[in-house]
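Work Package 3 (structural annotation) set out to generate three-dimensional models for the target panel prioritized at the project kickoff. During this period the team completed the workflow that converts sequence records into discrete structure tokens, so that structures can be stored uniformly alongside our sequence database. As a representative example, we reproduce one entry of 427 residues exactly as it appears in the project archive.
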Amino acid sequence: MAREQRLEDLNESRYQRQREESRQGELATSQYQDELLVAYIKDMAKYLEKGNGSLTSNNVMATVARVKTLNIFRQLDPQRNVRIIRFLYEAGQLTKTQERPSLDISTAELRDIDFLPPLRASSTATHPNARWQQEGHTVAGGNGQGNGINQLSCPLDLFVDDDQTVYVVDQLNHRIVEWKSSAASGQVVAGGNGQGSGAHQLSNPLSMIVDKETDNLIICDRSNRRVVRWPRQNGTIGEISISNINCIGLTMDENGSLYAVDEGKHEVRRYRRGESQGIVVAGDNGRGNRLHQFNWPCHVFVNRDHSVYVSDCGNHRVMKWVEGAKQGIVVAGGQGEGNDLTQLSSPQGVVVDQLGTVYVTDLGNNRIMRWPKGAIQGTVIVGGNGQGGQSNQLNKPFGLSFDRHGNFYVADFGNHRVQKFNIDSNA
């Protein structure tokens, strides 16, 4: 009996020691993870301060690499969303660079931490009942039609960068102009060397986007029937990416695939990086008004599930083509040309938020409309006050873009200006 009792006491002692060692190990692991998280936050604060409020992917890479393995981060945050950096990324404060180093142990890159790259629309869903101030203010042009650096001539499209810099397609000046926030004049960043087909020239550019991955402007060079890439920083000539295309609209998805509207073929093609032919993702069934056809498609937008939204100008509607679909769905207009809330007139720029709400420039009615997902009619959010040059009026609005704060910008073609409409924080 005494021997059995000693064995039982010994086993109990071992069990208690193992429990204590396990508890100490858990505490050490927890403390280690807490220290990692604190260090991570401090590093982010340091990089933010050093970068005046912005970060690059390399900053984030360097910090995550100190953790040694991505699994630690997944334990810190079971949903695999590194919330601090994801917030900064979706707020538009993380800008990618051409260098993409991998982590110390894991070969995962930044995008493998469940980031959802922002699209051309606002990276956050706009409230369904959001309102905008009805008096717009001019952020580019507005000094009459001309070719001065403070003037525009029939602007057709625009791209708003994270710092609210606006890139404008200045069609009849055959150039792309960069306007910094609050600047009184712009700077030519592509073309501007007269109309022509040279590598240093453009001819009636119609649309453009910024490829942040490569830091290039991608431009629909319409009359030259080509799409060109132009270095954003000190570029003097462009490089042809796509030839023999009647390009009128462009967008890009989070994978870097380019979507181009070919007006002449009434289709939209997707070009993965390095491709020159691409594949049809919408249309290519001749000109018409059926659900599998377009009648002069104009602008294009792609969402995160790769559904394509196209302003079908000649059919006065906006169409949605789900990836792989053989025909589209009408998501705005489609009731003939007119000015009722169920109608559109030659729609142009289109942006779709995360809720599936469609925002579209209604060119013929000089207004901007919002169509909630599944709605049979839209609402006028700006304009609709007749064609004119007052701050609450538009004159043939074309391109449309949002900044990350929910303010939107319109290429006001007939007024030779770009108008910004601030979101109403009191609404």
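Confidence is low (pLDDT under 50) at residues 65-82, 93-124.
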